[in-house]
Amino acid sequence: MFQLGKTIVSEDIIEKDFVCNLSACKGACCVDGEAGAPLDKEETKILEDIYPKVKPFLRKEGIEVIEKEGTWVTSEWGELETPLINGADCAYVIFDEKNTALCAIEEAYNQGEIDWKKPVSCHLYPIRVKDYSEFSAVNYHKWEICDDACSLGKELQVPIYKFVKQALVRKFGQNWYDELEKVAEKHLK
Hints:
189 residues, alpha+beta, 4-stranded mixed beta sheet, 10 strands, Rv0495c, DUF3109 family protein
């Protein structure tokens, strides 16, 4: 672990390789698991605001859950997250012709309907950020459904922090990322 500003960062994000391999996993991270995507407080308002523009991209099941539970929910542990369809799929999941899970929010973004890509926790994956009162912990979330992404990352020699560069800059800013790159260069020598 090392400190960058008000973050404590796991060395795994510079030592481990990762590149999403959607053709292998079919977007399993959006349909497996026990909870929806973690959300920041500000993101709950964004989801409420963009829902009318995202709704045309959603599946019927997603619309039903969102209209029943809301565009976001609070878990039993008090965490803000996206709602789930039958305790599995994120309510915002859609599927392409190859049955690969995609994000309706990101699809609306890609088609120019909205200017918000998706929740930052999704954008950052496989990095998870946990906020504490004095700092944020930045960790690699290892999940066996991503083994193909680890293999592809190793083959292409892309460390996690480079794979999620855009998301890290979005979350922490360009200066933070530049400092992370300096740490990585020294660490990997």
